[in-house]
């Protein structure tokens, strides 16, 4: 049965034993040798496929090119065999490997760039698939088998999602990767079979080094949006390394008088109730997460599906001459983060960056309404964003917070938790169209929930332009045997681009 760990700020005069600190409790979950349930194993395989899908589609995007070049400028460290980098050979004479922290960096950027992998939203929001790159990089470096990788990923998901259930970061303008550093460190601790005191130090160090403001997701959103979780993964690897060498971390990092809660979150009088698995309880959090059918912020997923439906039922809506206004009544989070409530003029700017447009629900709804769908490249193209009729329709779309949709967004009941809302379209002739959607079609409670065949189909669609057919089949055969993989097979758990797809000589030069 889940244990609720009550977390509050302690003054320096109050002695909080390390065994009572949240970092220690997290470490205890990481060291619990409970078996991984079969349905959890199945979902972990799905998410490894999902990560590879979106990484394949990103291989030649600017942030990935730069991060990959940085990783290749750092040779394999002396403690292991090195880790693979998405797109490059990982075995044989032409293998291109890097040190695990830099492989975690490069692969983390590749996974995150398109905003197209899994999500979990509660008190905070997250992309728990970001745990996989650092865990897999360390596994390849030290020689872990597939069963160890599965246990580690189950831990990473569990810890991040449990923190996300309880502790809101965005209210205080702290970026959500502050929950990822600790979870990745815990997952790596599980992978390596480290002792509780060592993992607790790594968790605390990872939190301390990955707490940053969320300006990375505000205004003119930069390429750092893709780098932020990769940085957290890289810091987690380094935190584990330091902890293994006997180095300690600020403590208590969550509960201290000058700690994260007191000065970065709800303040010295704050408290949180963090749910963690009881000893012997299976780590099943991953089953509560959900992936994306569309390459856009998760709160946009259901709205894309509703726009797709309206496009078919009311094709006249594609012409702005027929539309007086469109109001999306939705949750507080959607309104203030990706809606007009953010008060970001960039969300209505046809020349805004891709990173900004995928955080603009007015733009996304306009394009999906006109096109009847969404494409991870074409829907963000400058010529698409600048099309005059799209701009005209886009500028007639606003959002509004609806208390009921906010309540459902935060509901702990999975049967009523919702990420959509109600649309009210005022037509030029004076009539109105009203419709609503609660969850995306691909959500477990949606019209077409994602299953293994959907993950495989997504991988094929995104990989076919950059991977040879034989490589696609090789990866799919290998990854679906994940719990049984040998050490050598884990090192082959990578995707290798077709000849000519990646030009390493064209990468930008930097300091290294």
TrEMBL record:
Coiled coil: none annotated. SUPFAM superfamilies: 2-methylcitrate dehydratase PrpD. Residues 21-271 form the MmgE/PrpD N-terminal domain. InterPro entries: MmgE/PrpD_sf (IPR036148), MmgE/PrpD_sf_1 (IPR042183), MmgE/PrpD_sf_2 (IPR042188), MmgE_PrpD (IPR005656), MmgE_PrpD_C (IPR045337), MmgE_PrpD_N (IPR045336). It comes from the Bacteria. Residues 294-482 form the MmgE/PrpD C-terminal domain. Belongs to the PrpD family. This is MmgE/PrpD family protein.
């Amino acid at each position: 049965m889940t244990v609720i760990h009550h977390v509050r700020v302690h003054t320096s005069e109050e002695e909080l034993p390390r065994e009572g600190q949240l970092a220690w409790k997290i470490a205890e979950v990481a060291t619990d040798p409970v078996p991984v349930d079969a349905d959890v194993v199945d979902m972990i395989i799905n998410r490894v496929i999902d990560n590879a899908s979106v990484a394949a589609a990103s291989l030649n995007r600017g942030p990935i090119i730069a991060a990959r070049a940085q990783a290749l400028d750092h040779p394999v460290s002396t403690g292991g065999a090195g880790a693979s980098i998405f797109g490059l050979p990982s075995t044989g004479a032409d293998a291109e490997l890097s040190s695990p922290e830099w492989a975690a960096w490069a692969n983390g950027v590749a996974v995150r760039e398109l905003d197209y992998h899994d999500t979990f939203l509660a008190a905070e929001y997250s992309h728990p698939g970001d745990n996989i790159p650092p865990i897999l990089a360390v596994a390849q470096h030290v020689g872990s088998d597939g069963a160890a990788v599965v246990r580690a990923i189950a831990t990473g998901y569990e810890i991040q999602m449990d923190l996300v259930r309880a502790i809101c970061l965005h209210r205080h303008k702290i970026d959500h990767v502050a929950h990822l550093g600790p979870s990745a460190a815990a997952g790596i601790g599980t992978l390596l079979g480290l002792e509780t005191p060592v993992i607790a130090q790594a968790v605390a160090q990872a939190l301390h080094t990955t707490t940053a403001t969320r300006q990375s997701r505000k205004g003119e959103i930069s390429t750092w949006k893709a780098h932020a979780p990769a940085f957290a993964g890289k810091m987690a690897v380094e935190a584990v390394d330091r902890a293994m060498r006997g180095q300690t971390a600020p403590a208590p990092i969550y509960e201290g008088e000058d700690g994260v809660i007191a000065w970065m979150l709800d303040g010295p009088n704050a408290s949180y109730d963090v749910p963690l698995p009881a000893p012997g309880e299976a780590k099943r959090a991953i089953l509560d997460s959900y992936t994306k059918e569309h390459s856009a912020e998760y709160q946009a997923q259901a709205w894309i599906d509703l726009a797709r439906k309206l496009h078919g039922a009311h094709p006249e809506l594609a012409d702005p001459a027929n539309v007086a206004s469109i109001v999306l009544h939705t949750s507080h989070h959607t309104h203030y983060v990706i809606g007009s409530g953010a008060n970001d003029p960039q969300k209505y700017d046809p020349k805004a960056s891709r990173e900004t447009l995928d955080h603009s629900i007015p733009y996304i709804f306009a394009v999906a309404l006109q096109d009847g769908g969404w494409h991870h490249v074409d829907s963000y193209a400058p010529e698409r964003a600048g099309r005059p009729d799209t701009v005209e329709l886009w500028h007639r779309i606003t959002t509004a917070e609806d208390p009921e949709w906010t309540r459902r967004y935060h509901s702990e009941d999975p049967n009523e938790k919702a990420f959509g809302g109600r649309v009210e379209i005022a037509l030029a002739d004076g009539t109105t169209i009203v419709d609503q959607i609660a969850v995306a079609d691909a959500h477990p409670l949606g019209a077409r929930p994602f299953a293994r065949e959907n993950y495989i189909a997504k991988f094929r669609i995104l990989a076919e332009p950059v991977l040879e057919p034989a490589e696609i089949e090789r990866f799919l055969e290998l990854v679906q045997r994940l719990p049984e993989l040998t050490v050598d097979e884990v090192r082959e758990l990578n995707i290798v681009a077709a000849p000519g797809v990646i030009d390493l000589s064209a990468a930008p030069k930097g300091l290294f």
